[in-house]
């Protein structure tokens, strides 16, 4: 799942359930919600297969870089135009941590965070359902739009 979608899930969920959560708690909740999002089939496995056909680090850096720029743009718009708060930012940041940890292990080519990679991978593929790429992108895009609109309405 793309970071932009993970961040939307983290922010929207915390704002919906506990909008006054302490900032560190919002961060941890966002982190935990990352795994919930990864459990849901989301159809981006083909992106990983594409990355493995070349330099994995370079190709994943390209995909993650684009995703990261989109996320920064969304966050910048939210912060500039709304009464954005640190709870929403913390939960969005926390929801990105597991993929950052995974990415660092890819970059350095070794285990850095214990069994995190193993469990992250197990959760990601636990359902056994693989969606076509077009359906996965459509699902993720739609989910992100709905959740970011919810955040905007909640904070606006």
Describe this entry's structure for a reader.
By secondary structure, the chain is mostly helical. The chain has one domain (3-155). The protein has helices at 3-17, 23-39, 45-52, 56-81, 86-108, 116-124, 133-155. The model has no long low-confidence stretch (mean pLDDT 93).
Concise structural overview:
The protein is mainly alpha-helical and 156 residues long. It has helices spanning 3-17, 23-39, 45-52, 56-81, 86-108, 116-124, 133-155. The longest helix has 26 residues, at 56-81.
Radius of gyration: 15 Å
* Average pLDDT level: 93
Instruction: Tell how many strands the DSSP assignment holds.
Output: 0
Structural class, please?
mainly alpha
Counted up, domains total 1
Q: What's the main sheet like?
A: none
Q: Low-confidence segments, ≥5 residues, pLDDT <50?
A: none
Shape: globular
Q: Spell the H/E element sequence.
A: HHHHHHH
Cα separation of the termini: 27 Å
Beta-strand portion reads under 5%
**Quaternary state, please?**
single chain
Helices, by number, come to: 7
Please bin the fraction of helical residues: over 70%
Summarize the SSE layout with pairings.
Blueprint: H1 3-17, H2 23-39, H3 45-52, H4 56-81, H5 86-108, H6 116-124, H7 133-155
Features:
156 residues, mainly alpha, globular
């Amino acid at each position: 799942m793309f970071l932009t979608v993970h961040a939307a899930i983290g922010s929207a969920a915390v704002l919906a359930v506990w909008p006054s959560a302490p900032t560190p708690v919002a961060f941890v909740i966002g982190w935990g919600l990352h795994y919930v999002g990864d459990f849901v089939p989301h159809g981006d496995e083909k992106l990983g297969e594409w990355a493995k056909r070349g330099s994995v680090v370079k190709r994943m850096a390209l995909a993650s870089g684009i995703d990261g720029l989109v996320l920064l743009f969304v966050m910048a718009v939210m912060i500039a135009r709304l009464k954005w708060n640190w709870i929403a930012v913390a939960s969005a940041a926390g929801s990105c941590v597991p993929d950052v940890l995974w990415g660092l292990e890819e970059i350095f080519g070794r285990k850095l965070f214990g069994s995190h990679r193993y469990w992250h991978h197990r959760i990601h593929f636990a359902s056994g359902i693989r969606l076509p790429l077009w359906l996965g992108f459509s699902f993720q895009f739609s989910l992100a739009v709905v959740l970011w609109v919810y955040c905007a309405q909640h904070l606006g």
